[in-house]
User: Fold Protein CHUP1, chloroplastic from Artemisia annua.
Amino acid sequence: MPSGNDGATVTFLKRELEASFVKIDSLESENHELKQEISRLKTQISTLKAHDLERKSTLWKKLQSSMDSSKDFNDPPQKTKLQVDVVLDHAPFKKSSSNNTEAKAMLPKPPPSPPQWLQRRVTAPPPPPPPLPSSPVGSKAVRRVPAVMEFYRSLMKRDTQKENKNGVVGVVSVTYSRDMIGEIENRSTYLTSIKSDVEKYGQLLNFLIREVQGAAFTEISDVEAFVKWLDGELSCLVDERAVLKHFPQWPERKADALREAAFSFRDLKNLESEVLAFKCVPKQPLVQSLRKMQALQDRQGGV
Assistant:
């Protein structure tokens, strides 16, 4: 009987053998897949070659046809020779020599032979077209010349060194830009009109500022009247916002709140007048009346 160590060794060898079989099966399946892939790639290569040959043949035919058409167009048409067969009767020909001269004068002269440069020459077949470039995309790419790049870098370095040496360049550029901005502002008619409004209506605007700051109302109708008066006074300005920016003490938030309250009160008054004027017409369909009521309720909720 085998001992315990021999049994363990046999078990280990069996496991290794099974693992080898499994590995062999996986390798065989992988080999089969690789063979299928190779066959597929071969068929793809053959189809691509066939497409390439067909494309080349069509291109060659097109080129040949274009060359033939251009050659036929360049060749001038040849003049056809005129042949005249004259049958003369022998009897009157023998009568007198004057008749011979008259007959010779009546015969048409043959056309002149065409010059040599008009005669069609038999030439050899045209040479085949040059092969197509292998990489057309690469030819369109931008080529960078290192000498030009180095020259550009040297110029940039020289400019930066000059700017570093002259420390006043920054201050001069800032002052120059300020002068340009000032000149543009002086030439603008819009900005000129705003400045003139600030100077012209300065006292009026200071008075309006004090009125808005001290405004306090208990009735909303007074707010509406005050906003209407304020808008009428500010209507003389070219641009209200731009002019009032020159007055930092202008209470912008309070003026906006008063205007919003006046507009809401005006909307409520209009809604109230529409509700009071609403009447149900017996001849009108009920659905239409309900829709009008719903629209009035929606407007009330929005206000």
